[in-house]
Amino acid sequence: MFLDKELHGALKSPPVGDEELFGELRAELASFTTLRWITPEYLWLLNPKNRGAWEIKFRRIEPQIRVFGHFAGKDVFLALSYNYRSDLGDIDNQNWTFEIRKIEHRWKDLFFGRYHAKKTSDPHELFTGAIDAKYFYD
Amino acid sequence: MQSISTISKGDLVFYRRLRRNLVFSEVLAYFASMAACHGLTKRQLGKRIGKDAAQITRWFSEPSNLCLDTVSDLLTGMEAEMEFRVVPAGEQYAADDLMKEFADWAAEPTFPIGRHPESVTQTSETATSMWTDLPRDKVYGEQATG
Q1: What domains are defined for chain B?
Q2: Which of A53, A130, A137, B6 is deepest in the core (most CB within 10 A)?
Q3: Strand partners of residue A71
Q4: Do A40 and B143 touch (CB under 8 A)?
Q5: Mean pLDDT by 10 residues, chain A (138 residues)
Q6: Please, are residues A19 and B10 in contact by the beta-carbon 8 Å criterion?
Q7: What is the reported pLDDT for B121?
Q8: Nearest CA distance, B91 vs chain A (angstrom)
Q9: Does residue B116 register a pLDDT over 70?
Q10: CB B100 to CB A1 under 8 A?
């Protein structure tokens, strides 16, 4: 798990009063490396799926946070942006598209077009231990 | 006398969440394997432990929704057991080593920090054989986002 500078800074030196929130968020991201299994409740491919933008859902009572990023290769995730869930709005809100654009720009800033994110909607090509959602349907 | 330093609140919640996530994912993975191999549904599991399917859905949606008693009920309902063993914290739980700022790493790349397949190795032969039976396609990612 690699972090964008801004996100890394926020986790290392959380805003005063938000130490617990960012401590939990740090654990949520670290869980990507420690968990044997990854469920859709944790990691989600945003629409449109061909842009390869993934969302880590940090769900707690409030405030919830969403972390966005791309896969550089199998099991290697770059977390490039984050936002409060309440600021993102409904799933149709353009703020989601804005987040996708943001991480695409950050990716370009990092790699200057020399290296491309791995884009596929098959989670098994991107991370080990993916659990299919269908087992949790009624 | 050796001085005792206080662990920061941020670090305490870090480890709480990390361990909660660990238990949560193991319970969900076991349920998925039971669903795949034996057709277990949330409704059936709920009935076994006196809860409705909606309650099971709530428990399966967020690690914070599970308390130890709930974990116990779910395991009992699935006729499962969890292996408990307290061991000294190893390097794998060194908070700052699990994530790295990309720019720092790129300046001096050592090894990729990612999900390591060896850490996903099953400890139980039964679970391994059940897991390999899981169909690995199609539906991951078809729920609404958010």
Answers
A1: 11-84 (1.10.260.40)
A2: A53
A3: A77, A118
A4: yes
A5: 87 88 90 84 88 90 90 90 93 92 93 88 87 68
A6: yes
A7: 37
A8: 11
A9: no
A10: yes
Could you give the C-alpha distances from B54 to A57, B43, B45, B124, in angstroms and in order? 21, 8, 11, 30
Contacts of B87 (CB under 8 A, 6+ apart): none
Is B141 in Cβ contact with A45 (below 8 Å)? yes
* Residue B48 C-beta-side C-alpha neighbours within 13 Å: 15
Contact B32 A132 (CB under 8 A): yes
Residue A15, helix vs strand vs coil: coil
Q: Residue holding tokens 């909606």? A: B54
Domain ranges of chain A: 2-136
pLDDT for residue B142 is more than 90: no
Tell if the pTM clears 0.90, that is, is over it.
Answer: no
Identity (one letter) of the amino acid at A99?
A: E
Q: What is the mean predicted confidence (pLDDT) over B121-145? A: 39
B80: contact with A, CB 8 A cutoff? no
